[in-house]
Structure formats: C-alpha cells, structure tokens
DNA sequence: AGCACGCCGACT
DNA sequence: GTCGGCGTGCTC
C-alpha cells in the first residue's frame, strides 16, 4: 500500500518537519511555499509546505490529514523559501520558526494574502484652502494637513491618528487614493562630483548584470545616498526592484523621504514601527512587483520581491543588523546570500566598514569602491586627544573641552557632545559606607535617572525610587558617580543658562516625532548644544556643527569583547564625521585617561582604516573573525548550577569534531541577568564548513541532554559579541 | 513552544 | 477528601 504525503514546516522549536496525508483533490495545488492548516497535537497550526506531495510506502505510521489550503499560489516564492531554508540551516534555527519570522502579521496565521493597492493620503483643493484659513489654535489639525502640503503620503507614513484622518476626510479636506506606482514625479538628479562619478562607474561594473557585492566606503557627507539613488534608478529602468536596508527605524523616514523626492510614491517602507496591516500590505506589494522600492530595517531582508535586482545595506557595519534573540540572523549577511541566489547586486555602504567586509574587499571577494572627498569639500575632521588624567573634571568635562565649548558658543556656533550612556549617572554610591545601588535581578549597578527620580537597571528594566538616605547605613551621603547624557545636559544647562541645550537618547525618543522635531531644530540652528548617545552616530545629518566633543570612549579599551575597539572606532569616527560645515573643518575632541593607548593613537592619528588594519592583524593572530569562525552556545536558568552543567554536556558532543575547538564553558560576562544565571560555550573553527558540520550534527541533539528541559538555550552563529 | 498526563503538598 | 504545583513526553 502506498500513500501520498507532503512535508510541512510548522512554527515550533523542533529541528524537523512533519509529514501529512494529502487528501484527495489537494495534490494538484500543493507546492512548496504554500500555507496550510495542519492538526498538530491537540491544536491547529499554520504551516508551510516544504516538499511537494510524494508517494511513500505505508510504514505503519499514522499520518494525520492535511487541513485547509490557505493560498491559491505559494505565498513564499522559491527565492524567499530558499532563503528561509538557507538561514534555518546556517543559523541552526528550526525552519518553521524562521518562516514565521519572515511572514508579516496575520499571514503568520490564517490571514488572507490580499493586496489592496497601496493607498496614499493627499490634500484636496478644499483642504488646501482650509489649511490656509485654519486658525492657529487648531494645532493638531494644522500639523496633520501640513504634513501633506507638499506631497501625498502613503498611509503608513502619515503621522495623523485614525480619528484625525476620519475627521479630516469627512470634511473633504483629505482623500485616500491608490498610489500610482508607475508615476514618478521626480526631482532632477544633481550633477555628480568627479569622485562620485568615478565611484558610480565602478559600481556599474560596465553595465554587466549578475551577482556582485560592492563595498562603498565613503566618509560622512561624501554623497553615498546619491550613488544609491543612481543604482536604484538604473534597476527601475530595467524593470527590476530594489531593497534598501537601514539599521534603525528612526532612519527609515529620512531615507524614504529622500528616495521619494526622486522616485516618487513608489517607495514604501517596512519596519516594526508600522502597524501589522501596513507591513503586510508593503510585503504583498513588493511580492506583486507593485512596489519597486522598499526601505526597511533588519526584518525587511525577508520581504519577497517579484524582480529583485539590487540590495543596498546602508551603514553595513551597524550591529543592529544582527538579531540578538531567538532566530539570531544577520540581515547584512542574508542580503548577500539572497543576492547570490538571485544573481542580484549588493551595495554595502559605510564610512566605517566592519572588519569582515573590509577583509572581503581586500581579498577581492567584494569590489572596493571608495569615496574619499566630501561633497562640499570640507576637509575631513581631525580628532584631537584630550589627556584628562589629573585634570579637574566638572561632571566629566575637562577644562580644555569646556574652553573649546565656550569659544564655540561665543561664536554663536553649534556643538555636539557624545557620551554613550543614558541617564544621569551609572552609579549611586554612599560616601559614608560604600553601599552602591545594585539590581536585585542582575549583576549590575542601577543607573540614576534624575529627571524621572528613579534608579533603573539598564539590563532588565527594573526600577525603584531614589532613596533619600543610604539604605545600608542611614546617612544622607548618597552621591552619583560617573556621567550619562542627562548629567552632561544638566551641567551644560547650568553653565550656559542662555543657550539651548538638548539631549538625544532613547529615553527621549519615547515620544513620537521627538527625533524629527529635535533634528529640525538642530538644522534651524535653534539648538546650541546637542548631547546624546550613539543615536548621534547613526547617519542623521547635522549640517552646521563646528565642535564635536566625545566625553569618553575609554570603556571600550578595557572591554572584554573582541569587537569593543572596532565598535569604538566606528562610533568615534561616525560622530566625528558630524563635525564641519560647508568648506570648513570641524573641531573634534576626544577625552581619555589612556592617551598612550596604541590603538587609540592609531585611530586619531591615522584614521579608521589604519585602526582596522591593526585590528585585522590582531584578529589574524588570535584566530578570530574574519580569520576564523565562531558560534556561541548560550544557556540560562533560574537554577544557577544548570547552565554550566548543560554546556559541559554539550561540549562533550563536540569531541569527535577535531577541526572545531569547543572551549570550556564559562559564566557569561554578566552572569546574572533578569533573575537568570547565564553561561556560554564558544566554538571556534578555521573553516565555516567545519563549524557548520559540527553544528549540524550536534544542535539537534542538544534537546536530548538531561538539563535541556530546564535551561533556555540558544545557538548564535557568527555572534556579534561574546557576552 | 504548547498542551496533556501524572504524581505529591496545602486548602476552598 | 480535592485543586494545582511543575517534571516529562509528544507533536506527522
């Protein structure tokens, strides 16, 4: 007796698929990529067919019948399904869960895949009149209308609330229409500088199509975006589509807007700040070929395209491209894999490329394209080191830095201070007895947030009010130690009472449109000093800064993580790149207690590339990426003894793999976090293939270890950091 | 992951 | 006497 079966990937954390009996009449439409409902244990799940129906001998197993078929045509085309399969293999994550991560919103479940043509809101003639006539006090309405004044906006990008949309619509002031995705009311392209033209010619590769990766290394302000635009235009002209990845949600509106000016309303965004419905529609629009360009964050690498020809990864070095929990993929790396499968083109753009990409460019695997000059001919900023040893610091600021700031503000110019730590101070100390405010759930100090009057753990989010007296000795000698953005902001506000000081960190960005507001004010020059965290380093444009101060970057020099200095170099270079105005170099000062540190000196004297060279040499010696390949097994449990015991068991599985080093399991950098004790096991191999072989054979068996039930464990292939 | 089954503690 | 704790087994 033979039977007809089909294999289905189900969203469960199991390293296998499940076979179902094909019901009469279903066989014809069952193809890989199709969504189906399946009985699974006592529940019904939505899975995806991964193997077309096949005849199998009756092996005595009782297969359950397939349920409803949810799509007429496979929702996942071969490109996307193939990418998911590749990613599941490479990152050792169950395929069903990978697919679930690739599907937006309700398509994960039973939602119908129905594309409504993308809609956009626009002002009507009546709306235009109303905007002119509307009294000043109707601020919300004015703002909502104002946003549409110069152009129509896709539903996802118009900030007005649903109630507001309805009200304005009812008055006939705005209307919602399908986007004309063919229309391209384009702004004219600017003339390229000679350097840009040269770089573009290299990117074009003589017009040859096919898979290639270009690393576009261009300093801040060198005009990378214009080159992205030119390549996108070329793709669109060939009827192909483009995907643009950005590291952060906050960068999507800016870039989307810039692309839309030139390419018209055909540019859609895709990120987790959008509603499920909006994301689903953008996903379907790209799949149908209706949206020629998608700008999105990490997860957009899984958006299907009918005719994808180009993937741009902007700020490719940014660690946000690596997902840090669950399915730990790198969107940048998957973009390259996807392009290779599709014979498409990739452009990795950065002023400070990752060591991996630099290595690939130098070894000829990627085409190296450089843009050395800034468009407005500013000389590149030079970073000056300020030796703060023995200096009297006021809230962490040295007399020299304050002097430079005085002079800058005296001239009426703008300054930026970078400190990669939010809150007021990273520690609250009792001067009388030495007590420190610590988190009860983590091995960490609590950060003082003075504005909110709270002590907050930055690792688990736990909060408490600030004690008036020391909880340990009762004396009132509690003092904040160290500094964060809030403290610098306050110190400057006290020092310059007539200047406008603003802070830019994730605490402030909680409010919607706060970032746009602040950036607009910086551009309008109504802000004199901007104090902020690494958000400042992420590609936002500050056109008029004449001074950049880096309060400290020393932390990275003592950091245990092998990428800490690379990150520091990227941050410092990116922040420093904000300095300078048309035709004028900015001033950049970096405070340090380690003015002799050779890598720090390399960075400030010879620049990021020289630092990268030095770091690459170190990596080669230490057999670290990109010269070797790593994977990290992590385990955590409320029972402090279990993670190490589990990992010791896991380590034994690697004994047969002589080409892979399985290190002794060790407690994680912060051993206790959110009530869990954490440990990790590092795997190191000279070849990716060797590492993959070992992982393939061992990861599916980790669940069989006796402790596996009571620890949460995960595999991290190409870990971003070893904590 | 969910969900059920199963075998020991403090209570409507 | 039950309600429910979470160990452990299983999902085509």
How many helix segments?
Answer: 19
> Beta-strand percentage?
15-25%
Count the E strands: 30
Mind summarizing the main beta sheet? Answer: 7 strands, parallel
Q: Distance between termini?
A: 55 Å
Which word captures the global form?
globular
Mean pLDDT: 93
Q: Uncertain spans, ≥5 residues at pLDDT below 50?
A: none
Helix proportion range? 25-40%
| SSE class | alpha/beta
Give Rg in angstroms.
28 Å
- Tell me the strand order in the biggest sheet: 10-11-9-12-13-8-14
Keywords:
alpha/beta, 23% strand, globular, DNA-binding
Description:
With about 725 residues, the protein is of the alpha/beta class. The strands form 7 sheets. It has a 7-stranded parallel beta sheet with strand order 10-11-9-12-13-8-14, with helices on both faces. The longest helix has 25 residues, at about 600-620. The two termini are about 55 Å apart. The mean pLDDT is about 95. It binds a DNA duplex (12 and 12 nucleotides) through strand 1, strand 2 and strand 3.
Summarize the model shown.
With 723 residues, the protein is α/β, with parallel strands linked by helices.
Secondary-structure map:
Blueprint: E1 2-9, E2 18-21, E3 35-40, E4 43-57, H1 78-90, H2 95-102, E5 119-123, H3 125-133, H4 139-146, E6 153-154, H5 162-170, E7 174-178, H6 194-204, E8 212-218, H7 224-237, E9 241-245, H8 252-263, E10 267-270, H9 276-287, E11 293-296, E12 308-314, H10 331-342, E13 345-350, H11 355-362, E14 367-371, E15 382-387, H12 399-410, E16 414-418, E17 427-430, E18 447-449, E19 454-456, E20 463-465, E21 478-481, H13 485-495, E22 501-504, H14 514-523, E23 529-532, E24 545-550, H15 554-558, H16 564-576, E25 587-592, H17 598-622, E26 629-637, H18 642-652, E27 660-662, E28 666-673, E29 676-685, H19 688-702, E30 712-717
The chain binds a DNA duplex (12 and 12 nucleotides) through strand 1, strand 2 and strand 3.
């Amino acid at each position: 007796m033979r039977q007809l079966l089909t294999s289905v990937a189900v969203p469960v954390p199991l390293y296998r698929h499940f076979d179902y009996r094909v019901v009469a009449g279903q066989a014809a439409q069952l193809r890989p990529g199709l969504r189906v409902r399946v009985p699974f244990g006592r529940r019904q799940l939505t899975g995806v067919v991964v193997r077309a129906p096949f005849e199998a001998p009756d092996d005595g197993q009782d297969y359950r019948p397939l349920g409803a078929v949810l799509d007429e045509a496979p929702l996942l085309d071969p490109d996307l399904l193939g990418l998911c399969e590749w990613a599941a293999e490479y990152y050792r994550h169950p395929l069903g869960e990978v697919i679930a991560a690739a599907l937006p919103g309700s398509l994960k479940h039973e939602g119908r895949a129905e594309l409504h043509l993308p809609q956009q809101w626009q002002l009507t003639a009546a709306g235009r009149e109303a905007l002119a006539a509307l009294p000043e006090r109707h601020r919300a309405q004015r703002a909502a209308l104002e946003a549409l004044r110069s152009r129509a906006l896709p539903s996802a990008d118009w900030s007005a609330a649903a109630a507001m949309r309805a009200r304005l619509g009812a008055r006939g002031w705005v209307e919602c229409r399908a986007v004309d995705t063919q229309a391209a009311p384009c702004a004219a392209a600017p003339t390229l500088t000679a350097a840009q033209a040269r770089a573009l010619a290299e990117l074009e590769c003589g017009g040859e199509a096919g898979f290639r990766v270009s690393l576009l290394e261009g300093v801040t302000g060198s005009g990378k975006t214009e080159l992205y635009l030119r390549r996108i235009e070329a793709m669109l002209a060939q009827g192909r589509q483009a995907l643009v990845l950005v590291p952060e949600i906050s960068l999507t509106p800016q870039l989307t807007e810039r692309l839309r000016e030139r390419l018209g309303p055909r540019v859609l965004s895709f990120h987790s700040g959008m509603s499920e419905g909006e994301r689903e529609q953008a996903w379907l629009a790209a799949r149908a070929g209706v949206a020629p360009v998608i700008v999105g964050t990490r997860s957009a690498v899984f958006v299907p395209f009918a005719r994808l020809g180009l993937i741009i990864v902007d700020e490719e070095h940014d660690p946000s491209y690596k997902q840090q929990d669950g399915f730990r993929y790198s969107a940048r790396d998957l973009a390259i894999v996807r392009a290779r499968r599709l014979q498409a083109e990739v452009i990795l753009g950065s002023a400070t490329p990752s060591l991996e990409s630099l290595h690939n460019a130098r070894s000829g695997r990627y085409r190296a394209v450089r843009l050395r000059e800034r468009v407005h001919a500013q000389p590149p900023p030079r970073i000056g080191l300020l030796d703060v040893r023995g200096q009297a610091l006021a809230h962490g600021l040295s007399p020299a830095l304050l002097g430079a700031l005085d002079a800058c503000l005296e001239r009426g110019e703008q300054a930026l201070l970078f400190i990669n730590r939010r809150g007021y101070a990273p520690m609250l100390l009792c001067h009388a007895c030495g007590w420190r405010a610590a988190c009860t759930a983590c091995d960490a100090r609590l950060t003082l947030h003075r504005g909110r009057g709270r002590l907050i753990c930055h690792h688990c989010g736990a909060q408490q009010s600030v004690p008036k007296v020391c909880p340990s000795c009762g004396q009132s000698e509690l003092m904040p130690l160290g500094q964060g953005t809030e403290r610098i902001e306050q110190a400057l506000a006290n020092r310059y009472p007539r200047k406008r000081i603003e802070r830019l960190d994730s605490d402030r960005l909680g409010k919607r449109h706060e970032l746009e507001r602040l950036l607009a004010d910086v551009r309008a020059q109504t802000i004199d000093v901007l104090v902020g965290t690494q958000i400042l380093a992420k590609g936002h444009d500050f056109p008029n800064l004449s001074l950049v101060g880096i309060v400290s970057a020393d932390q990275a020099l003592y950091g245990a993580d092998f990428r800490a200095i690379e990150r520091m170099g990227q941050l410092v270079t990116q922040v420093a790149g904000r300095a300078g105005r048309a035709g004028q170099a900015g001033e950049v000062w970096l405070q340090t207690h380690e003015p002799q540190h050779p890598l720090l000196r390399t960075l400030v004297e010879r620049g990021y590339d020289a630092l990268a060279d030095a770091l690459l040499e170190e990596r080669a010696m230490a057999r670290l990426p990109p010269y070797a390949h790593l994977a990290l097994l992590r385990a955590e449990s409320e029972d402090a003894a279990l993670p190490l015991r589990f990992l010791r068991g896991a380590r034994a599985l690697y004994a047969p793999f002589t080409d892979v080093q399985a290190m002794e399991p060790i407690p994680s950098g912060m051993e206790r976090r959110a009530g869990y004790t954490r440990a990790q096991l590092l795997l190191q191999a000279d070849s990716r293939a060797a590492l993959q072989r070992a992982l393939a054979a061992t990861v599916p068996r980790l669940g069989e270890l006796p402790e596996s039930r009571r620890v949460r464990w995960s595999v991290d292939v190409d870990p971003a950091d070893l904590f």
